[in-house]
Structure formats: structure tokens, C-alpha cells
Design goal:
mainly beta, single chain, 35 strands, Jelly Rolls, 3 domains
Length: 579
């Protein structure tokens, strides 16, 4: 297919509504694990979260990555009371502060654990070697059975008192390194492979008595039903348009621009680590920062620093985009304004999607949405002093997320967070509530959109013929959703159609005066139509007959395709030889 030159003027009327045929976004819980050839890069690992902060509740940040040898899962837990069993047994590890990782190599499918399903329990401990505080299970088609599966776990804690003493702590972490060889693989799965993944956080707050309720990811998961688990994808997915698209326009969405209302909010410690609270475990998780002009994105490996953790949520309406278009690209822009203290190095700030609404006036760390999936991140250098308006712009690619939200008729709901390790490595950005003088510094979404390119392909059968022989031209069209016209000026060496041209859609005709076949119609984007018409060879000469059809789209212009026919050619027979 060849594109021809086309010139014209097009004026667009943009109507802010979505199709009533849109399908809502699925309630996805997926982590896209980045690959590193040597070992996990802590700051660049994927991150997601679950649970709640409270005196008798736990919250966890989960980092995930993989390399050539193993899958790595790091769970950082806010927990005020730390208890572990000093004389553990494998079957009671989860009766104390512990984490369970569930994996299924088939994906998040199936109603029972099979031989492709794995469970790994890791309990908190202090100074002792880890062997007795970890264990493994494998599915047998009925439930879980103990299995000898080599893995490595390591953990540590932070607090005012050691574990197993009354008092107040900040929390603990545990990391799992699960060799692919222990799962029957010679190396990591191919990028794009999806496994099932579930996590349970077990919490004991006293030496005796009942456990606190488990926290789970996904929040509705059942340990014995892999189909209720989340998804672990190896590698970050990219965005690729399924068909050629002609760019037609760009829409910019920003608070106050063309009447757009962009809602954003920060939860956690923001710029002051929550301020002077009398009891962080009671109060911090319920703080609200409605309408602040600057927000902070921050995380730290040391769990004792959790009062300074901060994540941001932003919702962009997509109603200003015209309907029936294809998303070519989309970019989130935030303007960096500063950082807390003398930031030691660059920070990797990540963008994720969420799939539920929230209210800027009531959102808190404890009621904020869970991540739908992580999209990737951008390195942001520290500032030695506050940046003047509008700040320093940084861009994140959110094309796939916008395409999915647009197709679903929903707004783009994002979260911004980090998996950073160093202290003082937060990043301040201007919010949608910054004063109008810095309107350009507000969170901005830039979307490039267009229409699917129409296409045409012409062929002829048989591809060679003699004088008087009938051949049939077949023309395949792919629609763009716009009005289209096809013309075929038949060469003089071919007859008029022997029978009336036929079309699976639209209207087709033949004009004897111009020796032209014409088709016109409207095919929805991606919909095909087939035209056929038989003709006979008129020429007695030996020649190549080239029959070119031209398809003109009312928006993107003409494209062409040529079918080649050999008339009255020689036949050459090659000898068959054997060695």
C-alpha cells in the first residue's frame, strides 16, 4: 500500500462526551516487575501497597524485581508491636508477625493450588539464622503440602524496644529471593509472562491471645483460590498502536485550562512528615491535606522513617478529547519545585494507575485507593535551592493508561510514589492548587490523538493469463470510521467486468464511459470490506498489466495498491535434479 499526497483544510468540532458503548476498566491488581541482569535495583523496583496504619493494623509497601537467577520481593511493614516465636515450628510461622508470598506459574487462574502453585512463609526474627523462620509449600490439586524448596529470606526491624517486649516500634521488613531453579525453571520467564501473585500480612500484637486480622493483596484474595490473586508480569509493558494512525490533534488537560477540573491530593507525611502529632500510629494515617499548593513524593528503605512517606493521587478528566479517536501518545508533566533537606542523589519517581474515585477533602493514607498497576518512572535530580515558577518540568509516558481509560469512558486516575532507599530523597511538585500565576506549573496531561488510517490491498487471480481468459480482481479495504471512496480506472488491456462487481459492504458500480469501477461507503475503524469483479484479457501482446486502485479517506487522504497481471507470458519449465 502506498500513501499519496493530499492537501486540504479540516475544522474539528470537539464534543466532550464518551461513547455509551464503553466498557469500564477491569478491577486489575497487577505489578509489572522490572528486569535487572545482575541484582535488583532497590530504587527502580516496582512498588505497590496495601493495608492500614494503626495501633493494631499493619501497612506494607511491596517492592518487586527480578534478575537472571531469582525473583525478589521486599515487604516493608509499618507495625507498632513486634512479636516472633523464639522456638518456631514450620506449621505455625504465620501465628506471629509474618508474611506469606503466593505464586502460580499458570497465572491468576484456577480454583485450587496445583503443582504450579507455591507458598512461602517468612516470620520476623531478630539475630538468629533464618532457616527455622521460613518454610515452603506446594499445591497438590487439593491444598498445600510442605515442600523442600530452596529460597533465601532476610529481615530486620526498627523500634524503641526489641521484638517480644511491650513498647512501641516502627516496623520491620522481610525480603524473599526465590531462585527460578527452585521453581523448575532454567532462568527467568520470557518478558510478558504473567504469573499469579498474592501476599498476606500476618500480625501479632501481644505474646498471647488472638492474632489481628490478616491484611491481603489483593484485598479480596483467598489463599486457596489462585483465581482471586493478583497478577505478576515479568517486564514493563509498552504501548503500541495496533494499527497505523493519522495524528489529528493534541489536547492539553490542566486545572483551569478550558474549564478542566483536575483533582489532586497528597497523603502521608507530605513536606513536614505529618507535623507534630501526639501519636503517629493513631493520627498519621488519617491526615488530609486538601488544596495544598505543593506536594511531596517520598519513600525510604528504613521503615523507622515512615512518617515522612508521601504519595500523590491525580485524576484527569478525559471529556475534552473528541470521541471515536485513537490515542497516539500521552504524557504526564509535573514541575519539580524542591526537595526536603540536602537531597543526596537523584530520585526515581514512579507513576501508577488506580481504578477508583476519591475525594480531595477526605482522602487519607488509610482510605486511598490501591494501585491498579505500575507504569514506570523517571529519575529526578535534586535541587540545591527552590526552583522559581513554573518549576522544572519532568515527563512520564502514560499513553497506555490514557488509551485504556479513554476506551472505558473513564477519567485517568494516577498515583505518584517512589521505591527510594536514601534519606531526604523526596521530591516536591506544584499541585493543581498552586496560584494562577503559576498555572503552567500545575500537573498537566498532554494527549496526541488521531484516526485509524484506511488501507487497501488489491490482488488478481490467476496472476498470469492469455488473451480472452477471465481473471478476478479482489480488493480488500480496512475502514477508518470515515467516509471513503475507491476508484479503479481499468487498463485498456482489460475488459469491462464480465458480471456486476460485488461488495460485502458499501456501494459499488461500473461506468462504461470512463471504464471505471467506483465504490463508496463508511466502514467503522478496523472493519473490513471485500470487492470482487471478473474481467477478461483483451490484449494479444506479451506485457505486464498493472491495475492500480485508489482509496480516498475523507480525513487522512488517499492510499493506493497495485495488482500485477502477466498477459500472454512464456512458461519455462525447470528440470528436476537429484544429488
Amino acid at each position: 500500500m502506498k500513501r499519496l499526497g493530499f492537501a486540504g483544510l479540516c475544522i474539528w468540532l470537539v464534543i466532550g462526551s464518551h461513547s455509551s458503548q464503553a466498557t469500564p476498566l477491569s478491577p486489575l491488581r497487577q505489578v509489572n516487575a522490572p528486569y535487572f541482569s545482575d541484582s535488583p535495583h532497590f530504587d527502580e523496583s516496582a512498588i505497590f501497597w496495601f493495608g492500614h496504619v494503626g495501633p493494631n493494623a499493619n501497612y506494607a509497601d511491596v517492592r518487586v524485581a527480578y534478575h537472571d537467577r531469582a525473583l525478589w520481593v521486599h515487604v516493608n511493614i509499618m507495625d507498632q508491636h513486634l512479636w516472633y516465636d523464639t522456638s518456631p515450628s514450620a506449621d505455625t510461622l504465620t501465628n506471629w508477625d509474618a508474611v506469606t508470598i503466593y505464586l502460580d506459574k499458570r497465572g491468576n487462574i484456577g480454583s485450587i493450588p496445583t503443582s504450579d502453585s507455591y507458598r512461602f512463609d517468612g516470620q520476623l526474627n531478630w539475630w538468629e539464622p533464618r532457616d527455622n523462620w521460613q518454610t515452603a509449600y506446594r499445591g497438590d490439586g487439593v491444598g498445600w503440602v510442605s515442600a523442600t524448596i530452596p529460597i533465601t529470606t532476610y529481615n530486620n526491624w526498627r523500634g524503641d524496644v526489641p521484638p517480644n517486649q511491650s513498647g512501641s516500634d516502627q516496623g520491620w521488613f522481610i525480603a524473599f529471593s526465590i531462585p527460578f531453579s527452585s521453581l523448575g525453571l532454567s532462568g527467568p520467564p520470557p518478558q510478558g509472562t504473567v504469573w499469579g501473585l498474592g501476599i498476606k500480612l500476618h500480625d501479632r500484637d501481644k505474646a498471647t491471645g488472638p492474632m489481628q486480622p490478616d491484611e491481603s493483596w489483593p484485598d479480596t484474595m483467598s489463599a486457596d483460590r489462585p483465581s482471586s490473586w493478583g497478577r505478576l508480569r515479568f517486564g514493563l509493558p509498552s504501548y503500541t498502536l495496533p494499527m497505523p494512525v493519522i495524528a489529528q490533534g493534541t489536547t492539553v488537560v490542566r486545572q483551569g485550562l478550558n474549564g478542566s477540573i483536575v483533582q489532586d491530593a497528597v497523603v502521608g507525611g507530605n513536606t513536614l512528615c505529618g507535623g507534630a502529632l501526639s501519636d503517629y500510629f493513631v493520627q498519621w494515617g488519617n491526615l488530609n491535606y486538601a488544596h495544598v499548593p505543593v506536594f511531596n513524593v517520598q519513600n525510604v528503605e528504613q521503615i523507622s522513617e515512615w512518617p515522612c512517606f508521601s504519595k500523590v493521587f491525580i485524576t484527569f478528566p478525559l471529556t475534552s478529547l473528541p470521541t471515536g479517536k485513537e490515542i497516539i501518545s500521552a504524557t504526564l508533566t509535573l514541575h519539580h519545585s524542591g526537595n526536603p533537606g540536602p537531597a543526596p542523589e537523584s530520585a526515581y519517581i514512579q507513576v501508577l494507575t488506580v481504578n477508583q474515585d476519591w475525594d480531595e477533602n477526605t482522602i487519607t493514607w488509610n482510605n486511598a485507593p490501591l494501585a491498579r498497576e505500575n507504569l514506570g518512572g523517571v529519575w529526578i535530580a535534586p535541587l540545591q535551592q527552590a526552583a522559581p515558577y513554573p518549576g522544572i518540568p519532568y515527563n512520564w509516558d502514560v499513553s497506555r493508561a490514557v488509551a485504556e481509560s479513554y476506551a472505558a469512558g473513564e477519567p485517568l486516575r494516577l498515583a505518584v510514589y517512589a521505591a527510594s532507599s536514601p534519606f531526604h530523597n523526596g521530591r516536591y511538585f506544584f499541585s493543581s492548587d498552586v496560584e494562577d500565576l503559576n498555572a503552567v506549573g500545575r500537573p498537566t496531561l498532554t494527549v496526541v490523538w488521531g484516526a485509524q488510517e484506511a488501507s487497501v490491498n488489491a490482488s488478481v487471480q490467476p496472476a498470469s493469463a492469455n488473451t480472452g481468459q477471465i481473471v478476478t480482481f479482489t480488493v480488500s479495504l480496512l475502514g477508518s470510521g470515515n467516509a471513503m471512496t475507491l476508484t479503479n480506472d481499468l487498463p485498456a488491456s482489460l475488459s469491462a467486468p464480465i458480471s456486476a462487481p460485488s461488495s460485502s459492504s458499501g456501494t459499488i458500480s461500473y461506468d462504461a464511459g470512463s471504464h471505471r469501477v467506483t465504490w463508496y461507503g463508511i466502514l467503522s475503524a478496523g472493519t473490513s470490506a471485500t470487492l470482487t469483479y471478473p474481467v477478461s484479457v483483451l490484449t494479444a501482446a506479451r506485457q505486464v498489466i498493472r491495475n492500480t486502485v485508489i482509496l480516498t479517506d475523507a480525513v487522512s487522504g488517499p492510499v493506493s495498491s497495485t495488482a500485477t497481471l502477466i498477459a500472454n507470458g512464456f512458461q519455462v519449465y525447470l528440470p528436476l535434479t537429484r544429488k
